[in-house]
Design goal:
The protein is mainly β. It is 12% helix and 49% strand. β1 and β2 form a beta hairpin.
């Protein structure tokens, strides 16, 4: 299996070349176009329980698609639902944490599940995050561009900009200011990472975009 990130810029796409014996797993609805020799099979990978956790708690699709082919060099193109960069990570037994909605596709030996972050993190983007483990290639996406930060000690990232991080890192979600100031002035939630590992940040925040759009919403007059 070979892959290439095409349509570089704000709206990239993932082009994967499949050969007989290859399998690509993706989010339902991610396929944009493909050769007619490619067959798609839809299933609840990980069983009903795993699909429920991934769908209801992890922000991903309940069902996933598996793509195979009997013809060499068959191409399929996947796109993300949000405008932003697509990253390929070669997994070699390590665990990677992903924000809700960041998973796009993977090879079959990569296991994607959801994980409860704990009540202390209940005010984050969500109480549940995705975990990716196993060996193979993981494709994930962000809103905007992606930058890697190497953490050695402590590092702070605004809650809306952390998209992926090594599971070896410990982290807490807290206010950026004191409690009284945070209550009065709305200081943002931040993720404070500790340890040694990698954090990937995205250059845009969906929450910030929603806040910017909110004053311009259409309000219906009930009078």
């Amino acid at each position: 299996m070979e892959y290439n990130i095409i349509c570089e810029g704000s709206y990239p796409a993932l082009e994967v070349t499949l050969n007989p014996g290859d399998t690509l797993v993706s989010e339902a609805g991610a396929m944009a176009w493909m050769d007619t020799s490619i067959q798609a099979k839809t299933s609840a990978r990980g069983g009903i329980g795993g699909a429920l956790k991934r769908g209801l708690l992890g922000g991903e699709s309940f069902f996933q698609n598996e793509y195979t082919t009997t013809q060499a060099g068959a191409k399929i193109t996947l796109v993300s639902g949000q405008p932003g960069y697509i990253r390929a990570t070669d997994m070699e037994g390590e665990n990677l944490m992903l924000e809700r909605g960041a998973y796009l596709a993977s090879t079959p030996d990569v296991v994607v599940d959801s994980k409860f972050q704990g009540l202390k993190k209940m005010f984050a983007e969500g109480m549940f995050v995705l975990t990716a483990s196993g060996s193979g290639t993981l494709f994930w996406n962000a809103y905007g561009d992606i930058q890697q930060v190497d953490v050695a000690g402590e590092y702070i990232v605004d809650n809306g900009y952390a998209v992926a991080w090594d599971a070896s890192l410990d982290y807490d979600v807290t206010r950026s200011g004191r409690k009284i100031r945070a209550f009065l002035f709305g200081d943002q939630l931040v993720m404070k990472f500790r340890g040694h590992g990698r954090v990937w940040v995205q250059s845009r925040s969906a929450r910030a975009l929603a806040s910017w759009i909110y004053p311009y919403r259409r309000v219906q007059n009930k009078g």
